[in-house]
Amino acid sequence: MKRVAIDLHYLPSLEFFAALADAEEILIFPKDLYQRQSYLNRTRIRLANKVETLSIPIQGRRPKIPMDQVRIDYNQKWQSVHLRGIKSAYGKAPFFEYYFPYFEEIFESGEENLWNLNRKFLTICLKLLRRTARLTAVDSSLLSEDVFDIRGQIEPGRPFSERNYYLPSPYTQLFGLDFEPNLSILDLLFCTGPEADKILGESTKKQ
């Protein structure tokens, strides 16, 4: 059984899901420390004229605390900004009306904890991709040697081409003539619907 250890990103990128292509169990770590300037609280979507980064504000400054203790800052109206951005980016996409309610429900749940929010989003993404991998929260100290550990590898500061997980397989996007690779999984789901996991399979580098 292939078991993959990975950071719990916010509405993860296509590279994230390509790296999990044949995983039967996905291990996530509530006690790993929150990292600034990471994908733990940010994702990328494509608007009409640019690629936009959506970031979830968190409480406190530079908190070196476990992920499951990171609190979301609701003094900033981030949900409205994110929902408006997603609707603007994908409202006319072929599968938007079918998939969007799943995500809207999570946005509107008022989840106070970043870890729980990301876990809810990942769970629904795996369901919509029709993947059967088990999602398991574990402690780093209990990690066995048979686990494929890619934590800390997928990060904004390094292009995906430096890693060995994702090789873009272009699909029809809503805006622009040039294909923009490695956006949030939202882009692929809203634009391709049931074909999303097949395209991810074609985008997975053969190890």
UniProtKB/TrEMBL annotation:
InterPro entries: WbqC. Pfam families: WbqC. This is WbqC family protein. It comes from Algoriphagus lacus.
